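Collaborator request, handled under Task 6.
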Amino acid sequence: MNLVMIGLEIHAQITALKSKLFCSCYGNYRDLRPNTNICEICSGLPGTLPIINKKAIEYATMTSVALGCKVPDKIMFYRKNYFYPDLPKNFQITQYNVYGFSSIGADGLFELDDSKKIRITRVQLEEDPGRIAYSEEGMNVRNSALVDYNRAGAALIEIVTEPDFNDPKEVRVFLNKLSLMLEHIGVCDTLLEGAVRCDVNVSMKGGNKVEIKNINSFKEVEKAINYEVTRQTSMYNRNLKIEYETRHWDDRKKITFKARSKEEEHDYRYFPEPDIPVIVLGNNFVSTLKGYMPELPNERFNRYVSKYKLTEHTSNILINDKKLADFFESCVKIYFSPVEIANVLITDLKSFIDNNSESTDYLSNMKVKPEHIAELVKLIEGNMISRLTAKDFLIKIAESGVSPSEVLNSTNSFKIVDEKTLKEAIDTVFDNEASAVNDARNNPEAINYLLGKVMKFTKGRADPKIAASLINIKLRQSEN
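Structure tokens returned to the collaborator:
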């Protein structure tokens, strides 16, 4: 029997939006000076009226559909009343399943793997609070804190799961799959700081629920759960009462500490938002949205395997990096050779990407563009250059942004297919590698060593198929 029960509350910003949820302030606040991205509406001045961002409703609906949720015909917004320094209005406009109205999504199901599915309680659209910056000593040292309201009012999707997780690793897998889904449907750029945040509810079977807040990354989520499970297990085994409370995660000390007693729902005094009427989505809203909704990761994976004939391994690598998958598709549109293009991207280009992957614009900032990859693959398949030469080309393109044909003309790197030239190179290698030649006569696999030496001697320009054939011929001749 699983004693541990874990539920999640994921908050994903709709980073695709240009403006906030109820006003025209910028949705992307990250590069702005503190407290400059605010207006009368998002700072909650009396007499102001919120105006709903229609695009936010569409993105939240797509998220609900992707999570297998039911989307109602009508939705409402409510005021969730509580005081916290980062909440300028002293209430948050959010959604609440009551009075016969549900949030924008409810009763969903998300497949974790073949044997386990996670129930999605609800998906709701709400405004983000501001951001509190604590002193270097951490949030449990309460000397002072700074508040930046630039984020207040940004559109946020909250995804609440049932306590269906029994292990921190399951949570990590779920969060990774969920992030991938949000990226592929274009809702959220999960690499942006604070774009996806997660609160965790942990309880022992039959015990009180403990909520953990202030977790900054998915790695920290796993650590926080591990700590809390250990703490609660210890208390459970000693017959100590586990309090119904909210705890914060200290990512320096790697512990949770009590923040406050957990609020009950009635403490928030929910009531319908008087300034936003009932929103009627209509019968055709969801079906119309599905018509132009981007592919989900699983759908894209199946297309790569069936249409592009990529292996499952290659498809997974591309799907797991949405920006790389988009780059791949752009290349294929220019020159249709999906298998070879994927090979170049994963084998050669990915080393450049991995060095810059901390940046959210790591591909758009590179000098290598889809047209470069398309032309490079065309040269490879046209037998103009070798794969080894192509790798060298890619380095030059990444440094200067020049086209592959320009590199080819300036370096005279055409593939060597002339048998006479190749035979001369092979003769030189045979003279220098007598021991390897003897090994190759008895062990066919040793031929690869000789071929490698020929490729090195010709600086990667030798046609490997012709060179391998000529090496075999020379070996047979020398035996006679």
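The cover message to the collaborator said: "Residues 263 and 368 are 53 Å apart (CA to CA). The longest strand covers residues 117-127. Please let us know whether this matches your experimental observations."
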